[in-house]
Amino acid sequence: MQNEKNLELCNKFLTFLFHLKCWMNANYMKKFNINGKGDFELTERQFEILITLKFLNNGTISDLEEKLHVTSSSLSTTISKMVKLGYIKRSYPKGHEDRRKTYLNITDKGINIIGDVHKRLIHAIDYFYETLKDDQKRFFSDGIDKLVKIFEDND
Question: Would you say residue 22 has pLDDT above 70?
């Protein structure tokens, strides 16, 4: 019996993820540079790195590996491009700390692009939210609050 409930929950969650991904692709992801198309010179992965560094209050490649579940070799190439574009800067420890450790810091240019994308996302979500009926708005808001709490509690 428990397995049937878990399967049903899993199917509901996958349906939710499918709809969210479709909505994100239509309203958000198309902004990024995918094969030379998009409003920003950043790719989706590069923006994901910026957002992760923002939530981490900056960090290291190891921190990004852990949060994004990608290899350091994959990240190193992307980070190098982002440094060259001016979105991230590298800094190195001073004093007695391990000198092999490299810290990644978001630059002002990186902060500005996060702000630009955030404004566009707010506009897209606002448009979506205003198309909902009052009870749907309440369900949406309550659902987001509950999901955020669940994931924050499990971090």
Answer: yes
Query: Which of 29-38, 42-51, 52-61, 97-106 comes out lowest in average pLDDT?
Result: 29-38
How is residue 146 written in tokens? 């509950």
Q: Which CATH number fits the domain that encloses residue 96?
A: 1.10.10.10
59 & 133 share domain = yes
- CA 122-41-126 angle, to 5 degrees, is 10
In single-letter form, the type of residue at position 21 comes to K
Domain count for the chain: 2
**CA dist 115 to 20, 51, 149, 152, Å?**
22, 10, 24, 23
113, 40 in Cβ contact below 8 A?
yes
Does residue 69 sit in the same domain as residue 135? yes
pTM: 0.76
CA angle in degrees (0–180, nearest 5) for 67-155-89: 35
Which of 83, 72, 90 shows the shortest CA–CA distance to 46?
Answer: 83
Rounded distance, CA 100 to CA 144, Å?
Answer: 40
